[in-house]
Amino acid sequence: MATSSHTPQELMVAVASREIRDGDLVFVGMRLPILAYAVARNAHAPKARGLFEVGLMRDQPAEAFLGTMGDPPNVAGALWATRMSNVMALMAQGSVDLGFIGGAEVDRFGNLNTSYVGEPVHPTVKLPGSGGGADIAILSRRWVTLMSHERRRLVDRVSFVTSPGYGDGSPHWRKRNGLLGGGPVAIITTLCVLRFPELGGEAHLASVHPGHSVKEVRAETGWDLKIADEVIETPPPTDDELAAIRRFDPEGFWTRTA
Amino acid sequence: MATSSHTPQELMVAVASREIRDGDLVFVGMRLPILAYAVARNAHAPKARGLFEVGLMRDQPAEAFLGTMGDPPNVAGALWATRMSNVMALMAQGSVDLGFIGGAEVDRFGNLNTSYVGEPVHPTVKLPGSGGGADIAILSRRWVTLMSHERRRLVDRVSFVTSPGYGDGSPHWRKRNGLLGGGPVAIITTLCVLRFPELGGEAHLASVHPGHSVKEVRAETGWDLKIADEVIETPPPTDDELAAIRRFDPEGFWTRTA
Amino acid sequence: MLGKVMAMAEAIRRFVPDHSTVALGLALEPLIPFAAGHELIRQGRRDLELVGPISDALFDQLIGAGCVRRVTAAWVGNVSEGLGHCYRRACEERIPLPLEVRDHSNFSISLALWAAAWNVPSLPTRTLLGSDILRTNPALAAADGLVHVAAVRPDVAIVHVQRADELGRVHAWGPMGITEEAGLAADRVIVTCEELVDPSVTLSDPNRILFPETKVAAVVHEPGGAHPSPVQGFFKRDHAFYRDYAERSRLVDGYLAWLEQWVMGVPDRAAYLGRVDSEALRILRHRMSEPVDYGDE
Amino acid sequence: MLGKVMAMAEAIRRFVPDHSTVALGLALEPLIPFAAGHELIRQGRRDLELVGPISDALFDQLIGAGCVRRVTAAWVGNVSEGLGHCYRRACEERIPLPLEVRDHSNFSISLALWAAAWNVPSLPTRTLLGSDILRTNPALAAADGLVHVAAVRPDVAIVHVQRADELGRVHAWGPMGITEEAGLAADRVIVTCEELVDPSVTLSDPNRILFPETKVAAVVHEPGGAHPSPVQGFFKRDHAFYRDYAERSRLVDGYLAWLEQWVMGVPDRAAYLGRVDSEALRILRHRMSEPVDYGDE
After folding, report:
1. pLDDT tens column, C119-152
2. Is the pLDDT of residue D25 over 60?
3. D173: contact with C, CB 8 A cutoff
4. Alpha carbon of D240 to those of A41, D76, D77, D237: distances in Å?
């Protein structure tokens, strides 16, 4: 049963958690996905495992709030505390089922830019960079990105591809370029969920979050967005999902601030 | 002061120990060199450190007898217990000053064969192989080999180069072939010590062990052995050296059996 | 005589000259050697190349202070807050100085250090295929369906750890990021530690010793030297401190005021800690590891 | 349901079929999984490829029993005694079967496994330059002043360790040789252990956990499963046993008599240990490691 009072971030976390299948090895990353993993583990994916590039594997979510993946509660009780290169080895072998990547800018083919707005030599904005994003985008079996839905962030083509999605959108672009992983399956924004065709390519609108409209989504999207035949309303967070989110983010550090 | 009663192996250990300079990082290997390191460490090289390919660094020699470098007494009190690839990393960086390699067959240019006697496809004798020998021969700054002095072991040219010395003996052979380390400096046998020119090349007789003669050495060597201008008698083990050897090999496992 | 223990100021003066390539922040969010970084700033170090994976606020602080000529890293910013404002100003407006950036991913910077550790020119990988990072970083070359990552050999790696002895045997625990390969790749390592312990403690567990002692040039006993980053078993992460830094560093004047308050205006780490409520950050719930038996006879 | 604990016979039957590539003896002289190897012989496994660094007597025993088609290793013999007589007979006289040998050095076999772990076709190195091993092993190629070592991906790695839990979290200590890269490179790992412990023990020290549990297919509680090789904290090396094997295996008949006595004629490890004076080998001088604090709150 759904509740009406939730923040956009809480909805995004709930939606992201539903991307995690039971038994998945999840490359968790930072921020909202840490909560999404915790929610999924406590609901439909009790056999999922989390992998963290800092050098950790976990089954149970950390018992306390995490500001970063390297916070002490994420280490206590870990299944493995090791080197990043060992964690990356598992992903390079194709053992990571799902990865999460935070995006600053994404395009219609799911390419992410977290490096440069404008010319790399004289950028108008220098973004922090790849972190593990490019590794996840290239090597994980499937991945999902979360971002605030703004026209300046969802662009026709990113000027710099930090973490490749489906490249120029041409058939089998990833395979032709030697990328091992399957590519992006969803873009979860503050307004909606975009999804990709089975074989990759261009993103389309799959569901719109409660209180928002297709028209609004199109207006905030930097390209002529394809619309699924049946766009549904994104199922809001259930009470259980909200309870879990608020247990792991008690002060709303991630889910109740702008 | 020297004593008369010692075994050939005890003399070889004493001679090998004198190759270790204080402060050296020594890639120790197996058998007699383990004793040579212990002797040196307790005498003229108190600041030497030992590196073992099994994945160990030590300062003090093990307190008890070692049948192999991986025996428990060699691990207790180690300075580092790690992976072989980390130990090899130090050697690849040129940090290993001296390595010891056991030889089955050596030639006039210091090349070692521990792989095949006869054609590799149908060997008359299959020897155990390189172990870390090739790595030491190629990557350590200088190295020494110990072996029983027999005409079948000291040959004009080995049929198979497992661990390269100075190749075909031509000038700068190692440099031209990209070998990082400096090459062999001595061959310590049951009869004598052979040494190499500063810049490498062909081995020559440098000292003959007490009770043996140049004539005997030449008869047991498979090529027309060069003789140093002044061949000395190998200084026998001192009482201190013998005492140390017998402390670390109390039953003569390595030094009082054929 | 063999002892490597010295004060932070001496370790930085002796082992990190101008123009050095310095690897630090190697465990990503935990164990960041902030105290060592602040001493680099106080000593006015210049033209450094910083090497790291995901690199939290310390890189931003060093860049803002004008210590840095080049960054070779996977990520530079403020992990819990987002952008690094000094990093942005340096890249976008050359304030205080122009900055050269060699972008990596987390995986590729690790491989660059393994290449140096094993003394090979480069190592191959399947990551970064299809990424424009290949276009902007000359140290990455694509060929035969692989990316060849050129070796990165730091002059010095600076690590903060839980405990070390006077001869440089280091015990660290928790996720290690790229700490091990950086220490092996570097010419030398500066260790800053929460606890300076007797060698009988470190040698009781040689598998936990992180580097060969031959790599360690200096051991600095600097409790709290990683604040505001977390130290497993000792300190929680000071999230509010990162937030305050993010807000105040948004503009140059704010950053300079922050720098004066927390770096230039304090002589050393002890004085810095006197201004932090470190007791509130101290970890009180202990979780001791089960010992293992190195018995040998 | 999640438990991975099973008897040796079941683990070998389920996870090591004929034609498998099997990595074992990965810590060189210590922790050699002799009990697992003997079960391979009892079950008549055929056409195995054995992968290892310096490989002590177990490789020789498996070759003599006719289990092995190919050896990919740096060294095969009897470390304290010298030559491996079954290895010699197989290579020189094709007794009991012809044997293909892919010679490596210790460094190159490690790199071959790291290549597989990182899923790249090969890794470069400066070792083996000038060695004839390059001529006889097709998996090694020289180019541009480097040697490119082709990846070796074992189907299964078999490791003996001091302790593990039922879900496959492994604690091992002492020198590790190429154990870690072999476990990461292998499709799956079979663990045999001295002690089967509660997960609260293994998870108390996640830095000591050797592999991700996702790699571990089976956990066999097999105390003494490494005899005659040493196990830090548990057993000394049985040098006399190696010497006896070396002498008796000099000729085929002697080897077969040895095999009947110690492998074919015993149903399992428990019966084998009943014939060994393992108490004389037990380590009595304990050297416990100093615990570390994983405290988090």
Report:
1. 999 999 999 999 999 999 999 999 999 999 999 9
2. yes
3. yes
4. 53, 19, 16, 9
Is D124 near chain C, with CB under 8 Å?
Answer: yes
Of the candidates C103, C180, C237, the beta carbon closest to that of A68 is on C237
CA distance D212 to D184: 8
Cβ contact, residue pair C130, A53, below 8 Å: no
With a CB cutoff of 8 Å and minimum separation 6, the contacts of D143 are none
Q: Contact B206/B230 with Cβ under 8 angstroms?
A: no
Determine what percent of chain D is predicted with pLDDT higher than 90. 99
Axis crossing angle, helix C8-15 with helix C34-42, rounded to the nearest 10? 70
Q: Which stretches of chain C drop beneath a pLDDT of 70?
A: 1-2
Residue positions of B annotated with a catalytic role: 53
CB atoms within 10 A of CB C127: 32
C74, C92, C173 ranked by CB distance to A125: nearest: C92
ipTM over 0.85: yes
Which site among B52, B91, B107, B135 would you substitute to test the D interface, given the most D Cβ atoms closer than 10 Å to its Cβ?
Answer: B135
Across the interface, of A90, A94, A180, the residue whose CB is closest to D212 is A90
- CB within 8 Å: A92 and C107: yes
C124–D204 C-beta distance less than 8 A: no
C162–D297: do the CB atoms touch at under 8 Å? no
The closest alpha carbon to C42, from C271, C287, C199, belongs to: C271
D189: CB partners within 8 A, 6+ apart: D156, D157, D158, D159, D168, D183, D211, D215, D216, D217
Handedness of CA D3, D9, D10, D16 (dihedral sign): positive
Select from D283, D192, D275, D194 the least CA-distant residue to D237. D283
pLDDT in the model for residue B103: 84
Do D283 and B72 meet the contact criterion of CB atoms below 8 Å apart? yes
pLDDT of residue C33: 98
**Chain D residues inside the 8 Å CB shell of A52:** none
CB-based contact C232 D293, cutoff 8 Å = yes
The phi and psi torsions of B187 (rounded to 5 degrees) equal -120, 115
d(CA A230, CA B80): 62
